[in-house]
Amino acid sequence: MRPDLFNNTVNQLLYGHTQNELSEKLSECVEAARESGKVARLTLTLTIKPIGHDTGQYEIRDQIKTMLPSLDRGMTLMFGTPEGNLQRDDPHQPDLPLRVIPDLPEINKQLRNVEDEQ
Known about the structure:
The chain folds into two domains: 5-67, no CATH class; 79-112, no CATH class. Helices cover 29% and strands 22% of the residues. A hairpin with a 5-residue loop joins strand 1 and strand 2. It is an alpha+beta fold.
């Protein structure tokens, strides 16, 4: 048996297209694993079928599969109302009476930029 039988065979499958596709898929798996922090999987299945009886010929078919992790989509926190609806605001928490404060020169004099002090 040749020690490079596997590599040599994969290199020749579909005139090198299988090896190129495996390289692309491997890169996709690495990128997806890096982005998600989860496991990615790349599987190469070779099906080897003899042609005829004692002809020495084999039909080899390859199948490449990837299992890429998905990124977490996050969540939305919502509150149920007594009527059975959902809303983003907590119905038990009152709205704060926020208002716009006018631009007052005496307050602006007290404010300073940190960059000005360097």
